[in-house]
Amino acid sequence: MANFFSNLFRKNSKLETNQLIVKKTIISFTFFFLFAGAALWGWYWLRHQPLDGGIRGGIPQPLRAGLDKNEKIFSGLLSDKHLAREYPRSSAVKKARVNGNVGMGNDFDAATWQMYVIRSNGDSLKLKLDDLKKLPKTEVVFNFKCIEGWSQITWWGGVKFSDFMKAYGLTAEAGKNYLGLSTPDEEYYVGIDMASAMHPQTILCYELNGAPLPMNQGYPLRLIIPTKYGVKHLKRIGTMYFDDARPPDYWAERGYDYFTGL
Questions:
Q1: Which of 12, 16, 67, 130 reaches 20 to 30 Å from 94, CA-CA?
Q2: For 153, what's the count of Cα atoms within 13 Å in the CB-facing half-sphere?
Q3: In the predicted model, what is the mean pLDDT of residues 45-66?
Q4: Is a pLDDT exceeding 50 seen at residue 5?
Q5: Residue 246 falls within a domain, yes or no?
Q6: Is 41 exposed, middle or buried (0-12, 13-18, 19+ CB in 10 A)?
Q7: Which domain holds residue 42?
């Protein structure tokens, strides 16, 4: 009799265990399909939201709104005291990696290069490299970071952007919200918040490792802005202008954060 009840108890326990497993499996699959359905609905909803504009149409407005909120947070942390870490020259790599070649067409004629600086009143300055070399030289050795996931300690030289603005009397322009830059062929273009452009480490760069910029690094002049990822370091500056509204930005139009700060 004892064995009978013992076996019966084991059978009941096994049955209860199996029922519990079935119950939990059903609950798990129910939640899985609910979450999968919600994800699919969210994806469908996002795909059908209006775009934020731009040359390529831009990205869905809810995504841009999220990126804009991030920008407000991180731009609020920027100050002249927020400096990228600098290193001795000996730490710099001998051959700097190239982070993209958009706007670096082979038809570029360096002999005719000029940088066009469009003032707020519509007038333009036309500057040669020698004009910039007359200004005090600044060097920066920092960890250049690319959105592709790599970084290198690199050594750059040129004129501090804030010194350039002061030297050419661009006071009204410095009061704008944004700086716009594009390559001579206008294939690559960036928008920089003015606070970052005027940061003490931002330079209009004409040297790499103490020598003139290589052609693939933006010869004769590029932007170096250590507080931002490499996508903002526009190579081969052709045109510079100023605006209170955001200028077009190549990678922001492709879904990246406009601020792109470090």
A1: 130
A2: 10
A3: 71
A4: no
A5: yes
A6: exposed
A7: 1-48
Note whether 129 and 196 are same-domain residues. yes
Q: Which amino acid is at 199?
A: H
> For residue 30, which amino acid is it?
T
Task: Classify residue 123 by burial, with Cβ atoms within 10 Å: 0-12, 13-18, 19+.
Answer: exposed
Residue 42 inside a domain? The answer is yes
Alpha carbon distance 224, 197 (integer Å): 10
- Specify if 186 maps to a domain: yes
Euclidean distance between CA atoms 25 and 71, whole angstroms:
43
Across the chain, mean pLDDT equals: 88
Same domain, 186 and 225: yes
Instruction: At 63, list the tokens.
Output: 């995504």
Measured CA to CA, the distance from residue 154 to residue 86 in angstroms comes to 10
Of 60-69, 98-107, 235-244, which range is least confident? 60-69
Compute the distance between CA of residue 143 and CA of residue 152 in angstroms, rounded to an integer. Answer: 5
Q: In this structure, what token pair is assigned to residue 179?
A: 């700086």
CATH number at residue 78: 3.90.420.10
For the chain, list the strands marked E by DSSP.
Answer: 115-118, 124-127, 137-145, 151-160, 178-182, 189-193, 203-208, 211-212, 222-224, 239-243
pLDDT digits 0-9 by tens, 13-41: 666 777 778 888 888 888 888 888 887 87
pTM above 0.90, yes or no: no
What CA–CA distance (Å, rounded) separates 203 from 69?
Answer: 28
Q: Helix, strand, or coil here: 237?
A: coil
